[in-house]
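Worked example 3 (structure in, sequence out).
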């Protein structure tokens, strides 16, 4: 999985937005249920738009039906890799079975 730091965050220019792709599409209904059960903070789900947004350890995470993931307020790629590992493990049952 390739992770790239795309640009500095508007709220804190010393941190970055990490962009990556899970390689598979997500079922947003399943994803929202998994995130609700996990008790993530400030969860917002839009099945119609195919997106979820929530807070995790001081970071804002946006996950798209396409499998794209954006994580705001990341320091470096190592931190992004660790967060992506946690996210992937948490949402593995939300993959739709289709590759993107």
């Amino acid at each position: 999985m390739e992770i790239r730091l795309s640009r500095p965050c508007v709220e804190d220019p010393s941190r970055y937005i990490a962009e990556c792709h899970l390689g598979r599409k997500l079922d947003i209904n399943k994803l929202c249920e998994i995130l609700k059960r996990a008790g993530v903070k400030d969860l917002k789900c839009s099945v119609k738009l195919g997106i979820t947004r929530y807070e995790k350890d001081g970071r804002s995470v946006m996950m798209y039906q396409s499998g794209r993931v954006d994580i705001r307020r990341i320091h470096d790629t190592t931190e992004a890799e660790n967060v992506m590992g946690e996210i992937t493990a948490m949402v593995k049952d939300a993959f739709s079975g289709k590759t993107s």
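Notes: The longest strand covers residues 68-74. The chain has a mean pLDDT of 89.
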